[in-house]
Specification:
Length: about 140
C-alpha cells in the first residue's frame, strides 16, 4: 500500500462540481493499493500517516506529526499510484489491486482513520475527482507500508 503524502495548508476534493471532502492544515494523502496489500498494511500505513513527523516545531525542524498539530487528514484513492512505470512510455496497471480489493482496503483505511483521528475527510472511490491543494513547503513524501 502506497501513500503519497503532501503537507497542505488547505485541500479539497470535488466530484461533478460538488466538494465531497475538505481540510484546512494537514495532510492530503493519495492512496494506491496493490494486490499483496492486507489489513495489516492498512494499519501500518495509518500509523505512519498519523505519526510521520513532517510539521515544523518551534525551531522550524520537521519534528511534529499530524497528531501533534491536530491537522486534518484527506484520503483520496488513486490507483495510478500503483502503476508500473519502469519500462516503456505508457504505464501498466498490472501492479495495481483489483477495484474490489482497492475499494475494500481503502474503505478499511478510512474507517480506521476515523476511529483514530478526529478530522478525516475523503474523496469518492472510483470517481473522476478534481483535487485542489495548497502544498505547504512544498513537502511531499511517498510512504510504502
Amino acid at each position: 500500500m502506497k501513500g503519497l503524502i503532501q503537507r497542505v495548508s488547505q485541500a479539497r476534493v470535488e466530484v461533478a462540481g460538488e466538494t465531497v471532502g475538505a481540510i484546512a492544515q494537514g495532510l492530503l494523502v493519495l492512496v494506491g493499493v496493490e494486490p499483496q496489500d492486507s489489513p495489516a498494511r492498512v494499519d501500518k500505513l495509518l500509523h505512519k500517516l498519523l505519526n510521520y513527523r513532517v510539521f515544523a516545531d518551534a525551531q522550524g525542524k520537521m519534528n511534529l506529526s499530524l497528531r501533534d498539530v491536530g491537522g486534518g487528514l484527506l484520503l483520496v484513492s488513486q490507483f495510478t499510484l500503483a502503476a508500473d512505470t519502469k519500462s516503456g512510455l505508457r504505464p501498466s496497471f498490472s501492479s495495481a489491486a483489483t477495484p474490489a480489493l482497492g475499494a475494500e482496503l481503502f474503505e478499511l483505511l478510512v474507517e480506521r482513520a476515523r476511529r483514530a483521528h478526529p478530522q478525516v475527510a475523503t474523496g469518492r472511490f472510483g470517481a473522476d475527482m478534481q483535487v485542489h491543494l495548497v502544498n505547504d513547503g512544498p513537502v511531499t513524501f511517498l510512504l510504502d507500508s
